[in-house]
Amino acid sequence: MLNIALPKGRLGDSVYSMLDQAGFDCPAYNDINRELVIENKKKGLRYLLVKPGDVQVYVEHHAADVGIVGKDILLETEPDVYELLDLGIGKCRMCVAAPRGFADDRSSTLRVATKYVNVAKHYYSERNRDMEIIYLRGSIELGPITGLSDVIVDIVETGNTLKANDLVVIDAFKDISARFIANKSSFKFQNRIISEMVTKLGDQLEEGK
Ligand code: PRP
After folding, report:
1. The overall pTM is greater than 0.85
2. What tens digit of pLDDT does each residue of 18-71 get?
3. Spatial separation of the C-alpha atoms in residues 80 and 194, rounded to whole Å
4. Of the residues 139, 156, 167, which should be mutated to test ligand 1's pocket, given the most ligand atoms within 8 Å of the CB?
5. 93, CA 20 to 30 Å: which among 17, 73, 138, 141?
6. Would you give the distance in Å from CA 182 to the centre of its chain?
7. How far apart are CA 61 and CA 9, in angstroms?
8. Is 17's C-beta closer than 6 angstroms to any atom of ligand 1?
């Protein structure tokens, strides 16, 4: 059995249909019986439906052989896995955003609200900017609105959340999309099926062009 960790939620549906079209029959997440493990015995595939931010944990620790995860999460957590393919779905950008009219006062410490602590630290240390990280789990846009932070570092997809909260992008510094990743030892010992997946998913990308 090849164990495949897939994200539940926003990215999930496009991931499931991409796998399905590539011939790896992937049933959509069944919210009714809330199954988290779905087996396809005939094809030797076992799907594990996990939180988007946990996919790389399963793969790195070999609880899954392969997985599909956002590049934002790979940048933040830097897992020891192989990143084999850019799937071109779940596209968004990692951005610094702030209230309209924001001007950076470099004489004071910049307060940055984010769930991407390492990404934000890296961004500002490259720019030699003194800052304080305020870690939030979600609804990051509330940071500047409530005065909790000066700016945010977050992913922006449609831009609707920023717009609705009167924030603007200051710097879009990284393109993000979903990536196909593999456990290093699985890549060695189950190379045939993993390479087949990479090829067939890659063919899907070509067809979609
Ligand atoms: C993400 C992100 C932004 C929003 C951007 O949040 O943190 O808040 O999506 O998308 P948009 O540009 O299309 O509006 P998510 O929906 O994952 O929820 P969260 O606030 O709980 O993190």
Report:
1. yes
2. 998 999 887 665 565 778 898 988 889 999 999 999 999 999 999 999 999 999
3. 17
4. 156
5. 17
6. 15
7. 22
8. no
